[in-house]
Specification:
The complex is a heterodimer. Chain A is α+β, with helices and mostly antiparallel strands. Chain A has 13 helices and 24 strands. Chain B folds into 2 domains: 4-100, OB fold (Dihydrolipoamide Acetyltransferase, E2P); 103-211, Beta Barrel (OB fold (Dihydrolipoamide Acetyltransferase, E2P)), CATH 2.40.50. Classes of the chains: A alpha+beta, B alpha+beta.
């Protein structure tokens, strides 16, 4: 494998995981950080493993000129965007590979990001391939009258289906990760909600376009982990269930595999649903010439009907929970490492048959937030953060354990990911509770109030994981 | 009412502020000003459309980004950065000593005279849509607020919360925040003047207008 220097255009725990994957592959790396992130462990790790020339301060993670200035100065040859920021920005990916000093982009080709990164395009592509999608608009709507017309027809459609209390969702089309989504159950309220979502979308994404869709109740949120290279090879790493979410539709627990018919009884053929979503996802990845890591996101209705929601053309936060149940030649998989190898032009050296799945994985997202108060983020200083190591536990965090840490308000509020493995669901749940009970997370805010975390919420949800 | 004369006298004891000019981004810096003692000018014009003195250029991706003097003043220090060196964002480049303007003195005194509504939490703030529209069409002082009115949206960690106003009823006389930047907890967001005190505030401003002489 050719020697590269990878610029990690991201922060926090994912920057650390990418840095370690680079080290595993014998590749050099360079990290960036902003003023607010100076205390993040990704900076400490960069300095520790790469020395002073491995860390550069920038004004923003969202300024491409600055990322490229650092890439050139540090002689980087590739860029890993992580998740968020530039990960699904096809213009950035295109610039990486087309600028005068060309770099490798560790992600799908920019054309694929353009096609699939936009959930509306994805919906259209899926419909062309007979992949089931949620009833509703398949392009951004900017005109209020048109939006009202689509909303009215969706209300009528649900009434015709026998749904007594129809509900629709208004989504910021430029949004993602559950941001900018509101529901409407009263057609008379639609106009107000539309205005609210458009205002939010303008402030957060500078794009007022909205999507309007039927709201499907009591669904499960499933994902299919895909890995593909530029030589036409496509494999999957099974399914994940991401149904446990905060009120703002932010994931809090992910479980792999997505259903467990051996331990839980379902009102439908859960094994068939898992096979179907995998088959649809692989089929679509093959058809679009997908060439990196990616996630096909599904919702499954209470009657076991799957609908494709969107495709995330990047590594996801929860990749580790799929990796922990996958084995290639009896070795645990590191999906970030595989993504980097493929991104640097390597051919996949395994096929679907060599991927074995073993046991159940649970990923807990640890946040400073108040689940009892609409999951409001808690801001303050973390004074103590510790946990005992276990062979079945993988912990990913950018929070230092040897000093206090002020939580920056500029970014997502994730503090850590704790991933546990068990030979079956029951053992994974038991280990999950052990992990949460042994976790110490303490701090105070400016008013002297104790840190609020979601640990109790995670414990409470553990018992009913994968129950539909 | 506040004692404007003694505050003014206090400010006159040290009528300067030192401004550190830092690299706005990472990139190669090219100095346009390189002598200590150089007099520089800040942005000018009705809409501050004329930029200040060019201090340096920061080159990224072959694009030079000008770094202008934000205020009038004199360069009193150069930090340890060589011309054409690659600098990281936030690296201090030079220090300018700036003589306080009438507006700045007014701001200092108004902060003492107005009821300040401070940031309850760290984050970015926006006026709610109705107030924002009114400010844009009729100006800041057209907005009257009273206890409990929803005035601001706090945005942090990609979540938005509406913030109600606490304090005396009055008009929003001045605002101190920029929606593009995060505001520290406790920093003033806007100043409110009860309507029956607007006259007194104008008298304070008149005193400053006559009692403060601006220097270049």
């Amino acid at each position: 494998m050719k020697k590269h220097k990878v610029l990690i255009a991201n922060r926090g725990e994912i920057a650390i995981r990418i840095l370690r994957a680079c080290q595993d592959l014998g590749q050099d790396f360079v990290c960036v950080y902003t003023r607010e992130d100076a205390q993040s462990e990704h900076c400490t790790e960069a300095l520790k493993h790469g020395g002073e020339d491995s860390l550069y301060r920038i004004s923003s993670y969202q300024d491409p000129n600055e990322i490229f200035a650092v890439a050139d100065h540090s002689q980087a040859t590739a860029v890993h965007p992580g998740y968020g920021f530039f990960a699904e920005d096809f213009r950035f990916a295109r610039r990486v590979v087309q600028r005068s000093r060309k770099l490798e982009f560790i992600g799908p080709s920019w054309k694929i990001i353009q096609d699939l990164g936009d959930k509306i395009n994805t919906k259209r592509l899926a419909r062309q391939l007979n992949v089931p999608t949620i009833p509703g608009s398949d392009r951004p709507i900017f005109d209020d009258l048109e939006a009202e017309e689509v909303a009215r027809s969706l209300f009528n459609f649900q009434i015709e289906q026998g749904i007594e209390q129809p509900v629709i969702l208004v989504k910021a089309s430029a949004g993602g990760g559950g941001m900018g989504i509101e529901e409407v159950n009263d057609p008379d309220r639609f106009r107000n909600v539309l205005r609210k979502v458009k205002n939010y979308a303008r402030r957060q994404f500078r794009d007022e376009g909205v999507l309007i869709e039927q709201r499907i109740f009591d669904f499960n949120h499933l994902e299919v982990q895909i890995l593909a290279d530029s030589h036409g090879n496509v494999v999957h790493f099974g399914t994940r269930n991401c149904t446990v979410q905060s009120t703002g539709r932010q994931k809090r627990i992910e479980v792999a595999p997505g259903f467990d018919p051996s331990a839980v009884s379902y009102a439908f053929d859960a094994g068939k649903v898992l096979n179907d979503v995998i088959e649809y996802s692989v089929h679509m990845a093959q058809n679009v010439g997908y060439n990196s890591i990616g996630t096909w996101e599904w919702i499954v209705s209470p009657t076991g009907k799957p609908f494709l929601m969107e495709v995330n053309t990047r590594i996801q936060v929860e990749n580790g929970v799929s990796a922990i149940i996958a084995r290639i030649e009896d070795m645990e998989v590191d999906l970030i490492r595989e993504q980097i190898r493929i991104g640097l032009g390597e051919k996949m050296d395994f096929d679907q048959g060599s991927i074995k799945f073993e046991g159940v994985g649970i990923e807990y997202r640890i946040l400073a937030e108040d689940p009892g108060n609409a999951f409001t983020p808690w801001v303050g200083r973390i004074e103590k953060f510790s946990w005992p190591e276990h062979p079945w536990l993988r912990m990913h965090t950018h929070i230092p354990r040897d000093r206090v840490y002020d939580i920056p308000t500029e970014f997502d509020p994730n503090l850590a990911l704790g991933i546990v493995w068990g030979k079956n669901l029951k053992e994974a749940q038991k280990r999950g509770l052990t992990f949460l009970n042994q976790l110490t997370l303490q701090g105070r805010n400016n008013m002297g109030e104790n840190l609020k975390s979601n640990i109790s919420y995670l414990k409470e949800k553990t018992d009913s994981l994968l129950v539909f | 009412m506040i004692d404007t004369i003694s505050i003014l006298n206090e400010i006159k004891q040290a009528p300067y502020k030192e401004i550190t000019i830092s690299a706005p981004h990472s990139g190669r810096i090219e100095f346009a000003v390189d002598q200590i003692g150089t007099r520089v000018k800040g942005a000018s014009g009705t809409w501050f459309e004329r930029p200040g003195t060019l201090l340096a250029r920061l080159v990224r991706e072959g694009n030079p980004k000008p770094v202008y003097a934000p205020e009038n003043g004199e360069v009193v220090k150069f930090h340890d950065v060589n011309d054409r060196e690659f600098v990281q964002a936030g690296t201090p480049l030079m220090t300018i000593r700036h003589f306080l303007t009438k507006q700045e003195v007014m701001d200092i005194i108004l902060k003492k005279a107005l009821h300040l509504f401070n940031a309850p939490e760290k984050g970015r703030y926006y006026f709610v849509a109705e107030i924002d529209a009114k400010i844009k069409s009729q100006g800041l002082r057209s907005v009257s607020v009273k206890e409990g009115d929803e005035v601001l949206i706090l945005s942090r960690m990609k979540r938005e919360t509406t913030i109600p106003y606490h304090g005396p009823q009055g008009i929003i006389y001045t605002s101190y925040f920029n929606s593009n930047e995060s505001v520290e907890m406790g920093a003033p967001l806007f100043g409110v003047c009860p309507e029956d005190q607007v006259k007194d505030i104008k008298a304070v401003i008149d005193k400053i207008q006559s009692g403060w002489e601006e220097q270049e």
